[in-house]
């Protein structure tokens, strides 16, 4: 696909970048300073037929409009909140994402965050490294994970994978979804507040849309309560971050494990001082195995597109 | 009802309901001796149900005049001949841990002192922590968190990639209560489970390796969940670590002494293994300082077992064990002795069983036919009996000479390394293949079989 002009929006993955460089005509959006972006797009637009974006920088309406030759948006992510899918549909632009290949890693991280918050794993590690164990004695008792009621917001691929794992820890599973699903072992709740009121660990695992923006608001946080733990492996904007911080500081929420934030890579520093909070820098799919699989999926979709074959993982 | 023969105390002033039975001499609470310092919660809960004796100073160094038959100990208080001599009235010692390295169990058995442990109360919490440590080391999650907190995310971009857990070959050393829960969890994460244990467990589907070294050569991860004994000290040594390899990860939630710690630190520094998750260390609370700056290790201060839930479960269990004891019911979590398989349950076999029973052994037997009047588990053949036994005792008679080769190679291999080892000593051979002199030639042939089988079962 040497003639395919590809705009990569962000330095998301070395291997992907090298392959695109090798096999296509690659344009790197981040090489243009922010104030020169529009010009960069304008001058290269005639050549750009494909866009590869990710959770950092996708394809919003302005970008799509600036690229009249755009045929396909291949996102290096499963979430498409950064792609104006409706605009693509209007223009007849194909859209692909990277489902399934990252499901395991994301689900693994969700479980890890729950254990890490309840068992104070990071704090315990700091305790040893600081030498406190020799001077201040044993660490305190923490909270058991096994058997806790796990509530999953969104029972898609990732939500199901989280449920399967939590079951191995004897956790009763409940969920909220737009509609009830055929899993008799998992208890369905018709609202997020109901779900939050009846679980100990609430995991956000749904797509980010207009409807799910700030789906975790003050009411849900209060329903989860002072013994409840919120785990977010979805998108930062799923959670009203300032409400979350207030609740944590006031003790109205028992704890939080967060992989995503409203304004990545900026994380509110109030979260650093709380022992019942674990924050990590959007690492849910960050293994070399999974990122390579994601990259191969992006490349495979582009290849299929230029050879007029069925796309591997189309959304549009 | 008031007893006629004993004077009763006057009714308390607040007592006014005529329908209630009159107050009687309040029953003496059973006595429990605390032979180790108690945590306040335990002290309070036990004092509410029992007459809790707290001799001082501890550890006990002189005899105490008490008729108390039950005691509570915490590691590292040693329960051995010396302690039992000081409290000869003891018939039960309950301990707060699952590990029993602080007990001289044969001595307890000799004196008819029952032992109750923490059973499985800690197992889920330890298994949970082992999984979290493994994920953390492979994925470098805590390290990425430190990176974030240092403010590096906006400056330097995404943290370097870790390695996926799914598909990793995990070798579990010790497939007991904790090890099997770890296996059950990691299977769901897509790991391929194999294990090393003193002997293979036919009821599990995981691949068995006879030595930790062999296990290490075919795994990406080693998780230690076995008992710490003289045999298992430094079971993870330089050779095992090199066999595990440069992508290898070690998780230790058992005892620090299982690993040659100095060697481990060297291997980590030199990249001979990829990383380690450690909850336990050789000289707690001292931890080798070199580990403190490593991003490929995750450390914790021996806390894998300890949650508020497991502590309250433990307290409940301790109380339940004492209450069972005092009401002559079976203990909830008795520490059973060795499982002994008796081949031949005639007059001699029955005598053997009587003695072994008194030592707290679990008896099973093989005989030409099942004996319904006997309360022990029956096995229709010697091989199946050997699979379930720690030791095999043969008590056949000259009349049964037609089954000379009843203890054959297959039976010896099923018995396993520890069982077969018993055959090496002269009296052990007699015990295993023993019986009458009339066996003469038969037992010599069997001894040869034992030696050949012993060579086939490699030592770890």
TrEMBL record, chain A:
Stored Gene3D superfamilies: NAD(P)-binding Rossmann-like Domain
CC annotations in GO: cytosol
Residue ranges constituting the D-isomer specific 2-hydroxyacid dehydrogenase catalytic domain according to the UniProt record: 17-314
Pfam family membership, one: 2-Hacid_dh
SUPFAM superfamilies, per database record: Formate/glycerate dehydrogenase catalytic domain-like (SSF52283), NAD(P)-binding Rossmann-fold domains (SSF51735)
UniProt keyword Oxidoreductase, yes or no: yes
Organism domain of life: Eukaryota
Coiled-coil blocks: none
GO molecular function, a single term: glyoxylate reductase (NADPH) activity
Keyword vocabulary terms for this entry: NAD, NADP, Oxidoreductase
Protein name: Hydroxyphenylpyruvate reductase
Record organism: Ananas comosus (Pineapple)
Taxonomic lineage: Eukaryota, Viridiplantae, Streptophyta, Embryophyta, Tracheophyta
TrEMBL record, chain B:
CDD domains, per the entry: HPPR
D-isomer specific 2-hydroxyacid dehydrogenase NAD-binding domain span: 131-304
Transmembrane segments: none
Key words of the record: NAD, NADP, Oxidoreductase, Pyruvate
InterPro entries hit by this protein: D-isomer_2-hydroxyacid_DH (IPR050223), D-isomer_2_OHA_DH_cat_dom (IPR006139), D-isomer_DH_NAD-bd (IPR006140), NAD(P)-bd_dom_sf (IPR036291)
GO MF terms, alphabetically ordered: glyoxylate reductase (NADPH) activity; hydroxypyruvate reductase [NAD(P)H] activity; NAD binding
GO CC terms: cytosol
Domain (D-isomer specific 2-hydroxyacid dehydrogenase catalytic) ranges: 68-335
Lineage top rank: taxon: Eukaryota
Region (Disordered): 1-30, 440-460
Family stated for the protein in its record: Belongs to the D-isomer specific 2-hydroxyacid dehydrogenase family.
Protein name: Glyoxylate/hydroxypyruvate reductase HPR3
Lineage, highest ranks first: Eukaryota, Viridiplantae, Streptophyta, Embryophyta, Tracheophyta
